[in-house]
Amino acid sequence: MTKPDRPQPEPVVKAGTVGSTIAAVVSAGGMVFVFFGLTSSARVAQFTQLTAVFVTAAVTAIVFLAPYVAALRARNKVTPITLKATPRDAHGRQLVPAAAYGAHAAPITVDELLHRLDQQHAEPVDELAAWAHALNHPDTQETIRMTALSHTRRPRTVSTSYTGRQVAQAYGLDPKWTGKGFTGGLVELGGGFGKSDLTAYFGRLGIPTPSVVAVAVAGGKNTSDGPDGADGEVLLDIEVAAAVAPGASYRVYFAPNTDDGFLAAIEQAIKECDAVSISWGGPENAWDPNTMDMFDQALAAGRKAGVPVFAAAGDTGSGDSGGRGNHVDFPASSPNVVGCGGTRLTLNADGTRAAEVVWDDNDTSSATGGGVSTHFPGRDVPDVAGNADPQTGYEVIVDGEQLVIGGTSAVAPLYLGMFLALLEATGGHRFDFLNTVATNPQVCFDVVQGDNGGFRAGPGRDQTTGYGVVDAGKLLAVLVDPIPDPVPPSPQPTPAPTVLELPDDILAWARKVAAERWQPQYASNAAKHLLKLAGQPVSS
Questions:
Q1: What letter would DSSP give residue 392?
Q2: Which residues, listed in sequence order, are joined to residue 285 by a DSSP beta bridge?
Q3: Could you tell me the fold of the domain covering 151-480?
Q4: Cα torsion for 475, 481, 486, 488, to the nearest 10°?
Q5: E strands, 147-224, where?
Q6: Under a CB-based contact definition with an 8 Å cutoff, are residues 272 and 264 in contact?
Q7: In whole angstroms, what is the distance from residue 237 CA to residue 499 CA?
Q8: Burial classification of residue 232, based on how many CB atoms lie within 10 Å of its CB (0-12 exposed, 13-18 middle, 19 or more buried)
Q9: Cα(98)–Cα(105) distance, integer angstroms
Q10: Across 26-35, 121-130, 131-140, which has the greatest mean pLDDT?
C-alpha cells in the first residue's frame, strides 16, 4: 500500500461556481413542472431546452468538482503488487523491489537483506538503518514470507577462533573415530555451496574432502547467494560437521523457506540419514501452534526410529527476537529434538578446556537462546551446549573467503558430527541421545557461570546450557561399558542347626525322662529339647 508522504491540500471550489451550478439545477427542475402543461409541439421545444440545461449542469459539476474527487481518491489509493512482476536477478532469485532500496542503489536479494539484518552488527549503523527501511517497505513485505532464519553470528573483532575438529577434541572425542559408514543430514532453507570451498577448507585441515551431496526438496535448490547471504550458514554447517566426522557422508537438503518446504526437508532427511542437524528456526510465538505440532510428529517419528535431530536454540538471548518477554526457539523447543545452546570456550595451549561460560555478548543480539516453552508443557531449552560465541568462533571458507562465524548454528552440526563418530565407535549401536544424557548427566561438563538475559546458569540443568557440554569420551564409556544397575543382595542360606555334644550320661538321663514323661511337664519337655540339640531321635 502506498500513501502520500504528507497531507494533500484541500481543493478550492469557488462559491460563485457552486451557486451557478445550483441555479442551473433549480431552473431545470422548474422547467420540468411547466413541461407537462404544454401542447405537444411546445413540449418538443421545451424538451430540447431542458436537455441542454441538464447537460450544462452536469458538465459544470464534473469540471469544477473533479479536483475534490481526485483528492479523496488519492488519500485512499491502494496500489496492488503483482508478485509475478517482482524483479529477479540472473539466477532467478527475488530482489527487494527498487522502491524499497532506500539509500542503496544496488539491487539486493530478499535473502541477503534478511541475513544482513539478522547479523545486526555485521554492517555500519547507517547501513543497518537503510536495510531496515527496505525490509519494512510495503513492497518488500508483499514479496516474501519467511518461515525461519538461520542462527549464525559474525564477530565484531576476532579474539580466538577454532575449527570444529579442535572443539570436538576439547570435548573428549578421539580423532580416530570419523563417522565412517554413517550419514548425516543438514537441513537448509537458502543459500548453497560449491566443491571448491570444501576442497580448499579440508585441504587446510589436511584431511580428505568428505562426500557431500546436495538434495533438492519441494523445489529448493543449491543456489549460492554470496557470503553475506545464506551461503555462510550452509558452509558453516557442512564444514563444522565434517571437520568433526570427516569419514561420514553428508546430504544437504535444500528446501524453500516455507512451512511446507521446511517440514518436507526434515521428513526426507530423517528417512535417509543416521542423524540430522537444523540451524534454522524462530521464536515459538511466531509459529502457528498446529504447525509446530505437525513438525513435532515428524520429529517424534525420527526419534522413535533412532535418528536424533540436533537443532540450534537461537542467538538473541532469552527473548529470541520474539518481542516482549522471554521466548524459546522452535524447532529446538520440540521435546523430540536435542536443543543446542551456546557457550564461550577458552582452550589451553595443549587444546584442552581451560574455561567455559554461557555465551552472552549482548542479551538481545548476541547470546544463546534458552528458556521454557509455552507450547510444550514442561519443556526446557536447551538440552546441551557447545562453543558458539563469535568471539571464539569457527574458521570457515565461504565463497572463497576465510571467515570466522559463531552462533548456535555451529553447535547443532558439531553434535551431529560427534554423534556420527560415536556410532562408529560403538559399532553402529543406536541409542537415544537425549535420554542417555538425561540419565547420565555425569558425562557433561556443567557450565555454571553466566546468563542469557532472562535465565542464569547454575549447578545441574538450567535454561542457558541445559545439562552442559557433553564429553564424548565419557559418553562413549557409558555406551560401551554402561554402569550396571544395583544388584540386590542374594538371600542368605539358612544355617544348618548346631549339634550339641552331650556326655553319654546326660543323653541317657534325657532319654529316660522323655520316655517316661516325667512330671512336671516341663521336665519332660526339657529332656526332649536336649535330645533335639544333640541330634538324637525323640519319641512323640
A1: G
A2: none
A3: Rossmann fold (3.40.50)
A4: 170
A5: 149-150, 183-188, 211-216
A6: no
A7: 79
A8: buried
A9: 8
A10: 131-140
Distance from C-alpha of 133 to C-alpha of 137, rounded to nearest angstrom? 6
Domain boundaries, the chain: 15-75, 83-143, 151-480, 496-540
Per annotation, catalytic residue among 233, 395, 399, 451: 233
pLDDT at 34 over 80: no
The identity of residue 260, as a single letter, is D
Cα-Cα-Cα-Cα torsion 375, 236, 180, 274, nearest 10 degrees, comes to 20
Per the DSSP assignment, residues forming a β-bridge with 385 are: 341
Closest CA to 232 of 282, 186, 193, 185: 193
The answer, yes or no, to whether the previous bond of 331 is cis (omega within 30 of 0) is yes
Q: Catalytic site residue 409? A: yes
Going along 217-308, which residue ranges are E strands? 249-254, 275-278, 280-283
CA 289 from centre of chain: 15
CA distance 267 to 504: 90
Do the bridges between strand 183-188 and strand 249-254 make them parallel or antiparallel, or are there none, so unpaired?
Answer: parallel
Q: What phi and psi values does residue 333 have, to the nearest 5 degrees?
A: -80, -5
Residue 150, H or E segment: strand 149-150
Q: Counting runs of H as helices and runs of E as strands, what totals does the chain give?
A: 15, 19
Catalytic residue among 237, 389, 399, 424: 237
Q: What is the pLDDT of residue 35?
A: 45
Provide the grid cell at 59. Answer: 458538465
C-alpha cell at 200: 580448499
Residue with cell 540386590: 488
pLDDT tens track for 152-171: 666 655 678 999 999 999 99
- Residue whose C-alpha cell reads 531496515 in the numeric block: 132
The grid cell for 237 is 554447517
Phi, psi of 187, deg, nearest 5: -95, 125
What confidence tier does 77 reach under pLDDT thresholds 50, 70, 90? very low
User: What is the pLDDT, as a whole number, of residue 184?
Assistant: 98
Asked if 220 and 261 touch (Cβ cutoff 8 Å), the reply is yes
- Kindly report, residue by residue over 347-366, the tens digit of the pLDDT: 999 999 999 999 999 999 89
Q: Is 237 designated active site?
A: yes
Instruction: Supply φ then ψ for residue 241, to 5 degrees.
Output: -60, -45
3-state secondary structure 118-141: HHCCCCCHHHHHHHHHHHHCHHHH
- For residue 256, say if its preceding peptide bond is cis, omega within 30 degrees of 0: no
Residue 432 annotated to the active site: no
The neighbouring-strand residues paired with 344 are 357
| Angle of helix 231-244 versus helix 195-205 axis, rounded to 10 | 40
Name every residue whose Cβ is closer than 8 Å to that of residue 354 and which is 6 or more positions away in sequence. 346, 347, 348
Can you give the pTM of this predicted structure?
A: 0.68
pLDDT, tens digit (0-9, with 9 covering 90-100), for 291-331:
999 999 999 999 999 999 999 999 999 999 888 899 999 99
**Catalytic site residue from 277, 318, 321, 409:** 409
- Which three cell numbers mark 44? 418538443
